[in-house]
């Protein structure tokens, strides 16, 4: 059974969901439909993924009550100014076909542009108007978080960051815990690159599970929210079949040792400056 993680604003989010980064817009409705059928209730998309329409279509076809689903999207880079952010948010809601969004994140801080505080204020405005239940950020470093909290007094409910056994981000996890900001792990499987790691393979074999299931289980036991991506029906189903085993202290010690400081697979938020 998927647990819910309680957020600092009183809402809660399923701990395991489907990420749809790099899912082809043309097949997204089908892929998300498979996930909902398999039991997923949380779907993570973004304006920049160009597949929000497919997510919306799947929600409408799913036959699951709206309030049982948890839908996340993210504000595109280049839309941090208030007017543009409001317009993009309207477009997101139209594509998803929703009245209210469960979680909306600033996708990247783009510190070189310096507009992320304005974006954060706009998300607060949208939340206060009742259009979003929870607001958060993605790819924010500690200094970015401190700045938005300091300038608005509003702490993000969530920060979605790259995190997996090869890039465990332990220092920043302490900061998040002390501010009650939930961490969502993106690229939880290291963009698939961790799946042939021999240590993970050994632990997986011991439990009679796959490497992906072993890594997803690691995220869950760390208290992280996790959104593995797959566009394959069998893998979507098996990535959700992670509640019949538990990693023991010995497994966790071996997994802890896989951490490297340079295990990042995606862009560094300090320098990332791509506009989409
Ligand atoms: P696919 O969509 O073909 O299943 P991450 O979530 O870390 O970004 O990793 C996603 C990558 O891992 C995708 O390439 C995805 O490919 C692959 N993947 C996801 N689940 C599994 C699985 N259970 N076994 C093998 N590969 C997987």
Task: Characterize the structure shown.
By secondary structure, the chain is an alpha/beta fold. The protein has one domain: NADP-dependent oxidoreductase domain (TIM Barrel). The protein is built from ten helices and ten strands. The strands form two sheets. The chain has an eight-stranded parallel β-sheet with strand order 3-4-5-6-7-8-9-10. Helix 5 (142-152) links the parallel strand 7 and strand 8. The longest helix has 15 residues, at 82-96. The N and C termini lie far apart (36 Å). The model has no long low-confidence stretch (mean pLDDT 97). It binds adenosine-2'-5'-diphosphate. The site of adenosine-2'-5'-diphosphate (A2P) has 18 residues, from helix 9.
Features:
276 residues, alpha/beta, TIM Barrel, 8-stranded parallel β-sheet, two-stranded antiparallel ribbon, 10 helices, 38% helix, binds adenosine-2'-5'-diphosphate
